[in-house]
Amino acid sequence: MRLISDLIGTLAVVSLLALASQADTQVGANSDPVYQQLRNIGLGSESVSVTNFELKRDAATFHLHSGTVCFVTPVEGKVTGAVFVGDGGMTFNPPNHDEERSLKLLTKDNEFDEAFQHLVLRFTDSTYEEIKKAGTAASGGCDASLLQDSQHTMRKKLHTNLSARILQDVLSDRPGGLFVAFIHGKHYDGQMLYTIDPTGAWDDVELRTYGEEKSGIWASFPISPDYRSRLGAAAGVPGIHIEHQQLDTTIEKNAHLSGKATASFAALADGVRVVPFDLFRTLRVQSVTSQDGQPLAFIQEDKDDDPDFYVLLPKTLSRGDKYAITTSYSGKDAITNEGEGNYYPIARENWFPSNSHSHFGDYAMFDMTFRIPKGMKMAASGELVSEGVEGGSSVTSGRVTSLSQPPVFSLAG
Prior knowledge:
Layout: H1 2-24, E1 28-29, H2 33-39, E2 43-57, E3 60-72, E4 81-92, H3 97-107, E5 112-123, H4 127-134, E6 136-137, H5 144-157, H6 162-170, E7 179-185, E8 192-196, E9 205-210, E10 215-221, H7 225-231, E11 240-251, E12 257-267, E13 272-278, E14 284-290, E15 297-299, E16 309-317, E17 322-331, E18 335-339, E19 342-345, E20 354-355, E21 364-373, E22 377-380, E23 383-390, E24 393-403, E25 409-412
Helix pairs in contact: 2-6
């Protein structure tokens, strides 16, 4: 009996250790299982045939004359993408004269009318329901490499983590409004991207090219009032307002920066679970902890790919809810050595995790401590609180009572 009891006890310990190990895998960089599903998403088994179907998205209308639409695998019960193969086209009408004139100069045409045989869509709006309702069950499939090419484009060319942006809406309890179209056209360079994002992550509405010979923004403007009204609850304000930043930053003579930033913020809308922050791509996050000291999952891919920084909160916030997180990070290249002992930040706006959707007039309070090599002097925006020496470092503390733009600093030997 004792042998059996010992065996049960051992198994219990092993089970607890396994559960603890499993729990540990849910925190840290890129560890969230739902994010991993989106990151590695592929085409599912559902497809429909469409004929003479129009999908209107603000200033653009996608005409799917005939073909097959294959949907991606659902994640958390939500379908977030599709591939179209067939005969299609896109018309685009900018909302104002300046954008219209600029587009004509770029296209050399009076009207924008693009034809395509392949189209990749990613979305969190009603696109899935609209296409499914208009289509009939299809027996054919689609080329899965088209979806893979769109993923490669975002990661390697545009350096934007689309999977993390989609995760925001997938884990939210309110509907999303994101729409992204990868257009494999016949006339205008062949590679175009059309995006609508009511959170402002891509300047609301944007048309751009990303080909080898032509790359740049062709049109960019706010979402039209009619389309924003159609989106309804999805067209909310950006997720958070940072009220206070506590920054503890160490800068070494080789321009290596390490920091610990505690951001206290309030939710500006319901359904906030995944929060984007703006952090310079070479500054790598070591850990993120909650206001009660618990480790949190976060997203930050390789600095040469799509290194956007997102934090997954342990609970969904409602409008007005307040929360705080602490981020530890470090890296080089965010500061440049200008020579003769002078250092200046290249990353003027994101040398610490700042609000990715901040705007002029979005005020926050800052308490800052800088630890720099002994013998160097610090110049920074704000009120000087104290100066001193700790070990081999000079320590300068400052405070900014309200600032609508990130604080700046420089060092001199």
